[in-house]
Specification:
The protein is α/β, with parallel strands linked by helices. It contains 14 helices and 13 strands. Nicotinamide-adenine-dinucleotide (NAD) binds next to helix 2, strand 4 and strand 11.
């Protein structure tokens, strides 16, 4: 089967297993070359660990700190003409590398919001490692099924109080397009908070705590975003911003519980903008991302997903270089938020969002858009994309 990129509305439909095999190996090799760091997290549960920041966290913790990892993700195996999702292949090649390194690993592919999945994971922890030392909550989803009513609730990415007009990049066409996003309603705010706020994170932590599956000093962490003033209408002051406020409030509640009962802690890390499945879907984010990357590359502060998460766990969760703001949030995004980076990005956005040719020539645009292709296994060096991919071989690589 010859596999070429298929992109609809900035969402990849196809994934290239050979390309992903190579990119996962590169990520893991990068972590190994950085050397080990010390944590007290031997057993780690990652909810949403198959792609983006969750996968970066899993690679950093397993290959940088020797952690045994359990991952819950919602991914598709290959079937017929369907190539399988990128996250599926990340899981497969992660497992191969973990096996070779003598690490324990387990993947649950299913709906993390469901009670059944929580039950399955709890039973597994009980029967294998006994307790977990860290829970990373890195879910990004557009939908959540209400477990009591069966209703499918959808999150949205909308501004509040007014509609906005702006521009974004149609990545498949390589062109800048105009967009108008209508203001979100109260129902859309409530639904987005339900899907992307802190409720499910809290359910996971409380469920495992009640079952006696959290170790002394257990930590949990979730990821939030603040970002530029220029992105505020659609992000921080929009429906998703309300969900992030709720996530951050949940961190405080969980922190009280974990510190009292376990001597542990709940953390929020403000992470930087990167190209992931979830982020390129945010209206306007690709233009901001391209110029931000360009500024950060010039300044020498640009980090990939795995580099960002390696620094988070090594320096700020377990190390002694934790940088927190007045709300107690870990500010891993401090390089993105530096005044000169923000001022230059904003200034150049005003010019370049009207100049597609110049925008796409930027080093940062090549990196941001390149990352988008790479996450599904495309545009990886030394992979022959005209060669037949032996899907029978790849389909037999199952998950443990
Ligand atoms: P992503 O889309 O790359 O990964 C999302 C993960 O959630 C995947 O592992 C996916 O399988 C899993 N998932 C989704 N629905 C699921 C379900 N129902 N059951 C089980 N697993 C499910 O997302 P990301 O960009 O890495 O985002 C992760 C977190 O980081 C989010 O909270 C996001 O807001 C935050 N964050 C992202 C950025 C960014 O620029 N990407 C910046 C700051 C913070």
């Amino acid at each position: 089967m010859i596999i070429k990129p298929m992109i609809r509305s900035n969402v990849h439909i196809a994934a290239h297993p050979t390309g992903i095999e190579k990119s996962v190996a590169e990520m893991i090799d990068w972590v190994k070359t950085q050397g080990n760091f010390k944590t007290d997290a031997k057993n780690v549960l990652i909810v949403g660990g198959s792609s983006g920041y969750g996968f970066g966290s899993r690679c950093a913790l397993a290959f940088g700190a020797g952690a045994n990892t359990i991952n819950v993700s919602f991914e598709a195996a290959p079937q017929g003409k369907r190539t399988g999702s990128a996250g599926w292949w990340n899981n497969v090649f992660f497992q191969q590398a973990a096996e070779a390194a003598g690490l324990e690993y387990k993947d649950f592919v299913g709906d993390a919001f469901s009670n059944d999945t929580k039950e399955l994971v709890a039973n597994y922890i009980k029967e294998t490692c006994g307790k977990i030392d860290l829970l990373v909550y890195s879910l990004a989803s557009g939908v959540r099924t209400n477990q009591n009513t069966g209703e499918l609730v959808r999150s949205s990415l909308k501004p509040l109080g007014k509609s906005i007009e702006g521009k974004t990049i149609d990545i498949a066409k390589g062109s800048i397009i105009d967009l108008t996003v209508e203001a979100g309603t109260q129902q859309e705010i409530d639904d987005t908070v339900y899907v992307m706020g802190g409720d499910d994170w809290q359910l996971w932590v409380n469920f495992l705590a009640e079952k006696g599956l959290l170790s002394e000093k257990c930590k949990t962490i979730a990821y939030t975003y603040i970002g530029a003033e220029s992105m505020s209408d659609i992000y921080r002051a929009g429906t998703i911003g309300k969900a992030k406020e709720d996530l951050e409030k949940t961190a405080n509640e969980l922190n009280n519980m974990l510190s009292t009962k376990f001597g542990g802690e709940a953390l929020i890390s403000v992470s930087k903008a990167v190209a992931t499945k979830a982020s390129v879907f945010i209206p306007g984010m690709p233009i901001y991302g391209c110029i931000l990357f360009d500024e950060m590359i010039k300044k020498g502060t640009h980090e990939t997903v795995v580099e960002h998460k390696y620094r988070l766990f090594k320096d700020m969760v377990y190390g002694s270089k934790r940088l927190v703001d007045e709300k107690g949030r870990i500010r891993l995004d401090s390089f993105e938020m530096q005044n000169d980076i923000q001022e230059n990005t904003l200034k150049r956005m005003r010019i370049l969002e009207n100049d597609q040719i110049e925008l796409l020539k930027l080093e940062g645009a090549k990196e941001f858009i390149g990352d988008f292709y790479k996450m599904n296994g495309f545009e990886i060096e030394n992979v022959d994309y005209n060669a037949d991919v032996d899907m029978e071989y790849y389909s037999n690589l199952d998950l443990k």
